[in-house]
Amino acid sequence: MNGHNRSIELPRGNAHSARSGRSPIEIVLPVAWFTIAGWFVWGSGNTSEEVLGPIPSTPEVAASQIDPSPLRTPLTDPPMVEIGGVQQRCSDCHAIFASLEVTPSQILQHSHIQLDHGLNNRCYNCHSRTDRDKLILHDETLIGFADTPQLCAQCHGTVYRDWERGTHGRTTGSWDRASGKQERLLCISCHDPHRPRFDAIEPLPGPNTWRMGEQDGAEDTHASEGNPLERWKTQNNGHPKKGH
Fold first, then answer.
1. How many whole angstroms separate alpha carbon 37 and alpha carbon 34?
2. How far apart (Å, rounded) are the C-alpha atoms in residues 137 and 216?
């Protein structure tokens, strides 16, 4: 080795790392991770089911409970109903006879309607008496049936603001408002405007996993002996700890 042409011999490990473009720790960590994972699965002397318990079964859920389609099909704008097999506008019939000023206690027509909307027990609170193809606001402004959220907002302002922001109601198509594919369902796509309160809904089953255990609400499964993680902590090479 002369003074003009010096060479430095790198350690073999560093030379290999330099050639491969990876540091030693990038090689060691994956190996260590798989080694530890393999011990948990095969080296503890217990099968995963013996340590963590049986694999939870998948509960059966009715297809109707996860159906993304709207709960109701609202009237079109203008509203059309089928009478005698023929599609008719509301005004086609209501133009023939004068509308009563007071909502009758017994409705002879539209007998399928059940009016149960709190204090809102008068047809003309929402329907225009002079134009049955329109709805009417408190200031007597007429709006189409496609604009029902404006009508609902008069009494349900808080819920309407939540609906505008997407925290109430259902959004379909896309989460991106700028995509042009997003569709916000109207109030009446879910709620019957004459009887808006939902009937009791049975909740879907809660999660039941090895990590969380049974979620029946009877006990704190995160701190109980039934929690798989707690059972794992009590294991000592496959045997319970002394005094347990």
1. 5
2. 47
Residue 182 inside a domain? The answer is yes
Over residues 97-133, the pLDDT tens digits come to 877 777 777 777 788 888 899 888 888 999 998 899 9
CB 187 within 8 A of CB 148: yes
Q: What is the full DSSP assignment across 106-153?
A: S-SSSTT-----TT---GGGTB-SS-TTSEE-TT--EE-GGGHHHHHH
Q: Give the strand pairing for 171-172 and 142-143.
A: unpaired
Tokens of 59: 């509960």
**Would you state the structure tokens that stand for residue 105, as one six-digit string?**
């206690």
pTM assigned to the model: 0.60
Residues 89 and 157 in one domain: yes
Question: Does 180 lie in the same domain as 90?
Answer: yes
